[in-house]
Protein backbone atom coordinates (compact mmCIF):
# COMPACT_ATOMS: atom_id res chain seq x y z
CA UNK A 1 0.00 0.00 0.00
CA UNK A 2 1.49 3.42 -0.95
CA UNK A 3 2.31 5.93 1.77
CA UNK A 4 -0.33 8.58 2.45
CA UNK A 5 0.48 11.99 1.06
CA UNK A 6 1.30 14.74 3.52
CA UNK A 7 -1.59 17.12 4.15
CA UNK A 8 0.13 20.02 2.32
CA UNK A 9 0.50 17.93 -0.86
CA UNK A 10 -3.17 17.00 -0.75
CA UNK A 11 -4.16 20.67 -0.42
CA UNK A 12 -1.81 21.71 -3.23
CA UNK A 13 -3.34 19.14 -5.58
CA UNK A 14 -6.94 20.22 -4.90
CA UNK A 15 -8.57 21.37 -8.13
CA UNK A 16 -12.22 21.76 -7.14
CA UNK A 17 -13.29 24.96 -5.36
CA UNK A 18 -14.35 24.60 -1.76
CA UNK A 19 -17.32 26.18 -0.06
CA UNK A 20 -17.04 27.05 3.63
CA UNK A 21 -20.03 26.17 5.76
CA UNK A 22 -21.19 24.97 9.11
CA UNK A 23 -23.43 21.98 8.61
CA UNK A 24 -24.30 19.09 10.89
CA UNK A 25 -23.67 15.63 9.51
CA UNK A 26 -23.13 12.02 10.48
CA UNK A 27 -20.21 9.74 9.80
CA UNK A 28 -20.88 6.02 9.79
CA UNK A 29 -18.20 3.43 10.34
CA UNK A 30 -18.91 -0.16 9.38
CA UNK A 31 -19.77 -2.06 12.58
CA UNK A 32 -19.20 1.03 14.78
CA UNK A 33 -22.34 3.13 14.38
CA UNK A 34 -22.95 6.79 13.59
CA UNK A 35 -21.11 9.82 14.94
CA UNK A 36 -22.29 13.41 14.81
CA UNK A 37 -19.87 15.76 13.02
CA UNK A 38 -19.72 19.29 11.64
CA UNK A 39 -18.83 19.94 8.00
CA UNK A 40 -16.46 22.90 7.74
CA UNK A 41 -16.13 22.97 3.97
CA UNK A 42 -17.18 20.92 0.97
CA UNK A 43 -16.34 20.57 -2.71
CA UNK A 44 -17.49 18.20 -5.41
CA UNK A 45 -14.65 15.84 -4.51
CA UNK A 46 -14.51 15.93 -0.71
CA UNK A 47 -14.97 17.71 2.60
CA UNK A 48 -13.22 18.96 5.72
CA UNK A 49 -14.96 17.72 8.86
CA UNK A 50 -14.70 18.59 12.55
CA UNK A 51 -14.97 15.51 14.77
CA UNK A 52 -14.03 14.34 18.25
CA UNK A 53 -13.49 10.77 16.99
CA UNK A 54 -10.15 9.32 15.93
CA UNK A 55 -9.99 8.15 12.34
CA UNK A 56 -7.14 6.79 10.23
CA UNK A 57 -5.89 7.77 6.79
CA UNK A 58 -7.37 5.44 4.14
CA UNK A 59 -10.28 4.50 6.41
CA UNK A 60 -13.60 4.12 4.55
CA UNK A 61 -16.57 6.02 6.02
CA UNK A 62 -20.07 7.04 4.98
CA UNK A 63 -21.08 10.70 5.33
CA UNK A 64 -24.69 11.81 5.62
CA UNK A 65 -25.55 15.48 5.16
CA UNK A 66 -29.11 16.69 5.69
CA UNK A 67 -31.45 14.12 4.16
CA UNK A 68 -29.20 13.21 1.27
CA UNK A 69 -28.14 9.64 0.57
CA UNK A 70 -24.98 8.60 2.43
CA UNK A 71 -21.77 9.36 0.58
CA UNK A 72 -18.97 6.80 0.59
CA UNK A 73 -15.68 8.53 1.34
CA UNK A 74 -12.09 7.81 2.33
CA UNK A 75 -10.07 9.69 4.95
CA UNK A 76 -7.17 11.48 3.22
CA UNK A 77 -5.68 13.41 6.17
CA UNK A 78 -6.11 13.67 9.91
CA UNK A 79 -5.19 16.43 12.34
CA UNK A 80 -6.38 17.16 15.86
CA UNK A 81 -10.15 17.56 15.74
CA UNK A 82 -10.45 17.50 11.93
CA UNK A 83 -10.29 15.11 9.01
CA UNK A 84 -10.30 15.54 5.26
CA UNK A 85 -12.25 13.06 3.18
CA UNK A 86 -12.42 12.34 -0.55
CA UNK A 87 -15.75 11.19 -1.92
CA UNK A 88 -15.90 7.90 -3.80
CA UNK A 89 -17.69 9.76 -6.61
CA UNK A 90 -17.72 13.50 -7.24
CA UNK A 91 -20.89 15.34 -6.29
CA UNK A 92 -22.81 17.19 -8.96
CA UNK A 93 -22.24 20.97 -8.71
CA UNK A 94 -25.97 21.46 -8.06
CA UNK A 95 -25.73 19.22 -4.97
CA UNK A 96 -22.80 21.24 -3.59
CA UNK A 97 -24.73 24.46 -4.28
CA UNK A 98 -27.82 23.06 -2.52
CA UNK A 99 -25.83 22.10 0.59
CA UNK A 100 -24.08 25.49 0.60
CA UNK A 101 -27.33 27.43 0.26
CA UNK A 102 -28.96 25.44 3.04
CA UNK A 103 -26.15 26.29 5.44
CA UNK A 104 -25.40 29.90 4.49
CA UNK A 105 -22.05 29.08 3.00
CA UNK A 106 -19.59 31.41 1.36
CA UNK A 107 -17.14 30.56 -1.42
CA UNK A 108 -13.50 30.31 -0.46
Automatic annotation (TrEMBL):
Protein name, entry field: PilZ domain-containing protein
InterPro entries associated with the record: PilZ_domain
Species for this entry: Sphingomonas japonica
Residue ranges constituting the PilZ domain according to the UniProt record: 16-98
Organism domain of life: Bacteria
Pfam families assigned: PilZ
Amino acid sequence: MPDAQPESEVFNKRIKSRVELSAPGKLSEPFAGNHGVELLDISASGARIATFRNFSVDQTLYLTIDKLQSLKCVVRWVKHGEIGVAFDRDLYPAVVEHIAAAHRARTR
